[in-house]
Amino acid sequence: MKKVAVLTAVVAIVAVLVFALAACGKAEEDNFSGKDVYDRDLGGIYDIDSEETGVFRLPYEIGDTSVMGKTMISSNCADYVQVEKTAQGYRLTYYCKEGMLGAVKIITADGEKSGTESEDGSYQGFTFEVSKEDLENKINLSCVVTVMNKTVEYSIKPDLTKAKLVG
Q1: Distance between CA atoms of 34 and 136, rounded to whole angstroms?
Q2: Residue 5: enclosing H or E segment and its boundaries?
């Protein structure tokens, strides 16, 4: 009986630690404070159209795939895309857990555009030059799910109304 009580206590402590670490990681990810060089509040919601430049995080909706596909994507990719607006245009970075996806491409009417790969902590980023119209519509993606060695297609629809300034 004593062994069961000790084991239960250990499991409870481990569960609390896992949840606490997950909460800290999420809080760190969303914890923006201060101002940027243009005196805008970091972490504030801004209209990308009205800003000349900036780096924004936008939540997105997953589409054009099965429920299982949506579940796999949402559990292996960040729940946001990052959009950098410059005088030259827009760069969208799509983040997934390191090594989960490969050969990520945007599918357009003119063909496919490959993303430039980068790393950001435990995430692997795929950066694309996109237009304002791309951001306003769903973005069709193609990628290789590395663990299955299978190419899949789906879409994401960034939510421009929730653009959080991060830089």
Answers
A1: 29
A2: helix 2-30
> How does residue 165 score in pLDDT terms, banded at 50, 70 and 90?
very high
Closest to 97 (Cα-Cα) out of 114, 116, 120: 120
Q: Nearest to residue 159, comparing CAs of 59, 89, 92? A: 59
Residue 84 three-state SS: strand
Q: What residues have CB less than 8 Å from 150, skipping those under 6 apart?
A: 144
Q: Which residues pair with 94 in a beta bridge?
A: 81, 126
Instruction: Calculate Rg over the CA atoms of the chain.
Output: 19
List beta partners, residue 59: 80
Q: What is the pLDDT of residues 24-59, one digit of tens each?
A: 333 334 555 687 777 788 888 888 888 889 999 999
